[in-house]
Amino acid sequence: MINYINLFIFITGGIIISLICNKLLLRFSQSLGIRNKNDVTIRWSNQSKPSLGGIGLFLGFLFATFLYLMLEPDINIFGNIEFIGLFFSASLAFSMGLADDAYDTKPIFKLFIQISCGLFLVLSGTTIDLFHHLVIDSFITIIWVIILMNSLNMLDNMDGITATTVLFALLSCLVSAMLVGDSSQMYWMYIMVAVIGSILGFLRYNINPSKMFMGDAGSQFIGLFVAFFTIKFLWNLGSITQTHSWVSLILALTALTPAAADTLTVVINRLKAGKSPMVGGKDHTTHHLVYAGFKDRQVWMIFSVIGLGSFLLSVGIIYLVLIRFLDATILFLLYFVIVFGILYRNTLKYKSSS
After folding, report:
1. Which uninterrupted H or E stretch holds 231?
2. What are the tens digits of pLDDT across the range 279-315?
């Protein structure tokens, strides 16, 4: 049975931890966490702001872990091999992102750490159950981790976009966990709601006009965190409910439509232009919406609507899976196709005037 009082405690604690942490960091961030002050080529904002939001997000994760240990002293969460994999890979992702914020680490080093994070999850028993073949599914899991860590990092190019996208994606995972999860593993829900609370606290300072950025420490950690929970409660919904695994593919794509549409658009356009998809630039779908005449805050609102639609449709897919009406789930692919089509067409129609 779901303990809603504890859920409230965890999400409230996550919000408070995030608000306090970010407020304190802003006070001591006149130079801390601000790099590339004169570099306005890659970053959308031409103002130097502290890239420290990820610290509050990671602290929300740690808060949930140790609060659970206090509330449930008879249950050793570190006795769960999956949680150990999440804890160490999340810590590794956060540390690598923090180093990148401070020192601009090499792309090959970042890729090595991302692969290592994926391996941690695989070795601790968290894999995408798509083809029911350990080697193939393990490879797909590592690729998924790499894609999400890079995709959310790339999407973190304008105030509030990545945090809002992640918020709705985690809400989709939370609903799935509540409907199909084992009540004996409530800590997954507690951890999610605590980080959701941390995201809400971070958005207080990140929505346009923002006071701080998420930074690589935030995008790398949250990318790994979302990768883990989408694997556990979206990708593997088919295996949990003993239904077709292709439904899980549709579910994961729907829940992450904003990030998937942006990443696919950027990759296509950069390859067409003979550029590397891994090099930063002001050519994201968010940027092109500004070129089309929208203000930064309006772009955030557009992506919020897309994220809300992704969440609601994801819940619809989960419901259809539970009632075994699987044929209708294929129609949900239209949402991604429509969103991608509109955003991609806009990048072809409106270009930067600079």
Report:
1. none
2. 778 889 999 999 999 999 999 999 999 999 999 999 9
Supply the DSSP string of 128-191, one letter for each residue: --SSS-HHHHHHHHHHHHHHHHHHHHHHTTSTTHHHHHHHHHHHHHHHHHHHHS-GGGTHHHHH
The backbone torsions φ and ψ at residue 50, rounded to the nearest 5 degrees and listed phi first, read -65, 130
User: How many C-beta neighbours within 10 Å does residue 3 have?
Assistant: 14
Per the document, the length of the chain is: 354
State the Cα–Cα distance between residues 62 and 180, nearest whole angstrom. Answer: 25
Sign of CA dihedral 309, 310, 311, 317: positive
- State pLDDT tens for residues 1-17: 678 888 999 999 999 99
Q: Name the residue among 288, 269, 289 with its Cα closest to residue 279.
A: 269
Could you write out the three-class secondary structure of 240-257?
A: HHCCCCHHHHHHHHHHCH
What are the tokens at 268?
Answer: 């296509």
Question: Tokens standing for 43?
Answer: 């970053």
* Count of CB atoms situated within 10 Å of the CB of 194: 29
- Between CA 206 and CA 200 the distance in angstroms is 10
pLDDT, tens digit (0-9, with 9 covering 90-100), for 47-88: 667 778 899 999 999 999 999 999 888 888 888 999 999 999
Q: Is 261 exposed, middle or buried (0-12, 13-18, 19+ CB in 10 A)?
A: buried
| Cα-to-chain-centroid distance, residue 116 | 18
How confident is the model over 202-219, as pLDDT tens digits?
999 999 888 888 999 999
